[in-house]
């Protein structure tokens, strides 16, 4: 599922593994004026709903850079769980940062769906 890159967000589920019914999630807000408005959280909820209800995936995972605190909080808010950390795995602007691995399972999402207010 790919968002319109000319709009405020792009989101997708890729690297779908049919054997294990899992996929990898990515999102990007292209304009900083859209930060802090809940757009990323809403887009994430909609994408998870599609992935778990339409594609019937068992698991969706993502990676987030440790300096992206806003994204990390949004992922936790919709039910992603931190599963691991690649320490100092990416070098950006002269500094190493961790890559945080997160995941959510279908039953976790479905059990909390009413709390997410679609």
Description:
The protein is an alpha+beta fold and 118 residues long. It has one domain: Aminopeptidase. The chain is 27% helix and 40% strand. The protein is built from three helices and five strands, in the order ββαβαββα. It has helices at 39-54, 69-77, 106-112; strands spanning 9-17, 22-29, 59-65, 81-92, 95-105. It has a five-stranded mixed beta sheet. Strand 1 and strand 2 (22-29) form a beta hairpin. The longest helix is centred in the middle third of the chain and has 16 residues, at 39-54. The two termini are 18 Å apart. Residues 1-8 have low confidence and may be disordered.
Outline the fold blueprint.
Layout: E1 9-17, E2 22-29, H1 39-54, E3 59-65, H2 69-77, E4 81-92, E5 95-105, H3 106-112
Parallel strand pairs: 2-3
Antiparallel strand pairs: 1-2, 3-5, 4-5
In short:
This protein is of the alpha+beta class and 118 residues long.
Low-confidence stretches: 1-8
Percent in strands: 35-45%
Shape: globular
Count of beta strands: 5
Placed side by side, the strands forming the largest sheet appear as 1-2-3-5-4
Q: Counting H and I runs of at least 4 residues, what is the number of helices?
A: 3
Radius of gyration: 14 Å
CATH class: Alpha Beta
The CATH H-level superfamily is Gcn5-related N-acetyltransferase (GNAT)
Which short descriptors sum up this protein?
alpha+beta; single chain; globular; 5 strands; Aminopeptidase; 118 residues; five-stranded mixed β-sheet; disordered N terminus
């Amino acid at each position: 599922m790919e968002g319109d890159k000319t709009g405020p967000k792009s989101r997708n589920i890729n690297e779908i593994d049919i054997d294990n019914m899992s996929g990898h999630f990515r999102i990007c807000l292209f304009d900083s004026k859209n930060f802090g408005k809940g757009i990323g959280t809403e887009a994430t909820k909609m994408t998870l709903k599609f992935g778990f209800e339409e594609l019937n995936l068992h698991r969706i995972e993502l990676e987030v850079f440790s300096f992206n605190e806003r994204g990390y909080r949004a992922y936790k808010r919709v039910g992603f769980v931190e599963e691991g950390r690649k320490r100092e795995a990416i070098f950006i602007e002269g500094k190493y940062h961790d890559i945080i691995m997160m995941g959510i399972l279908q039953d976790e999402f479905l059990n909390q769906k009413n709390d997410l207010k679609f």
